[in-house]
Amino acid sequence: MDKIEITGLRVMTVVGVLAHERESAQPLEFDIILEGDLRDAGVSDDLADTAHYGLVAQRAAAIARESKDELLERLVHRIAEDALTFDRVEAVDVIVRKLRPPIPEDLQHTAVRIRRTRADLQIPARTSHRAIVALGTNLGDRVAYLKLAVEELGNSLIGQSQVFETAPVGGPENQGAYLNMVVAIETSLDPFAMLRRCQRIESLALRQRVVHWGPRTLDVDLLFFGDITISSPELTIPHPRYGERRFVLTPLAEVAPELCPANWQTTLPPDDITPLGPLADLY
Q1: 68 pLDDT more than 60
Q2: Gap between the Cα atoms of 168 and 177, Å rounded
Q3: What CA–CA distance (Å, rounded) separates 69 from 77?
Q4: Relative orientation angle of helices 191-204 and 142-153, to the nearest 10 degrees
Q5: Euclidean distance between CA atoms 175 and 170, whole angstroms
Q6: What's the N-to-C CA distance of the chain in angstroms?
Q7: 186 forms bridges with which residues in the sheet?
Q8: Is 98 an annotated catalytic residue?
Q9: What residue ranges of the chain are covered by domains with CATH 3.30.70.560?
Q10: Model-level pTM?
Q11: pLDDT in tens, 41-65
């Protein structure tokens, strides 16, 4: 996983088991390494897509200053537990150094290092949603672009249709045929973060929006997000035109038929759609 490192955080606090250590504060130094998936933030440049390391550091310092723990082990455990409550943080390493250890020897410091994950501390799983995403491509290596999208959605994938080749609908003339499919994923992201993930995947395929409804390397369209309805300048859910597009509904019917409009097979005009089989068979 990606990492955010907070190093050399120094705090004065009371810690230790000896009598004189309980009488006055002493300096501690912390390193906190957060692990998670930061790919969305790399594309969106949005603080909401990463862990706010400033807040992590402030809260760790507050925990240390207010601590009356005797053992460093207990203190770093509590700091790790707090860090794992932040969105995007899946694991954390915490190192604490006692800079003035009460030992009559020549040493620089003593330290405790721990690693904890959300599972280790039994932190409740984030709320999960089923998102339905449509994929389309008609430029370049179309199969490779579909494969890229599926791989980037990763372990969250819970269902996928076969691939369909479709004639272009709307837009400029003389476009090449599209490959279309629909996938279902489980995600703990919010809808707008999911939208940014879709846009990040499009950017990996060098998607350019030059001509409206024009040819593209990759479309990654968020069709549904659980039972949520959203109407905003950035995002509309359900997708406003999904029910008008046979090239969307045909693969959608293989993944989530309950989301297709009633009688769409007979009410929509026919399109030139050819099933090609599962994506894995086209590599």
Answers
A1: yes
A2: 6
A3: 11
A4: 140
A5: 10
A6: 27
A7: 130
A8: yes
A9: 129-282
A10: 0.66
A11: 887 788 878 899 999 999 999 999 9
pLDDT at 174 over 80: no
Q: What 3 state SS string does 193-245 have?
A: HHHHHHHHHHHHCCCCCCCCCCCCCCEEEEEEECCCCEECCCCEECCCCHHHC
Q: How far is the C-alpha of 132 from the C-alpha of 170, rounded, in Å? A: 23
Residues of the chain with CATH 3.30.1130.10: 2-117
**What is d(CA 236, CA 68) in angstroms, rounded to the nearest whole number?**
50
Q: At a CB cut-off of 8 Å and minimum separation 6, what does 60 contact?
A: 6, 9, 30, 32, 79, 82, 83
213: left (phi over 0), alpha (psi -120 to 50) or beta: left
Give the domain 2-117 fold. GTP Cyclohydrolase I, domain 2 (3.30.1130)
Task: Give me the phi and psi of 234, to 5 degrees please.
Answer: -85, -30
β-pair type (129-137, 157-160): unpaired
Are 1 and 35 in contact by the 8 Å Cβ rule? The answer is yes
CATH of domain 129-282: 3.30.70.560
Q: What are the pLDDT digits (tens) for 234-275? A: 899 999 889 888 999 999 999 999 999 999 988 888 778 999
Cα–Cα nearest to 198, from 179, 218, 216, 169: 218
147 vs 217: CA distance, rounded Å: 12
Amino acid at 65: R
Burial string for 47-67 (b: 16+ CB within 10 Å, else e) reads eebbbeeeebeebbbebbeeb
Neighbouring residues of 37: CB distance < 8 A, sequence distance ≥ 6:
1, 2, 88, 90
- Chain CA centroid to CA 190, Å: 9
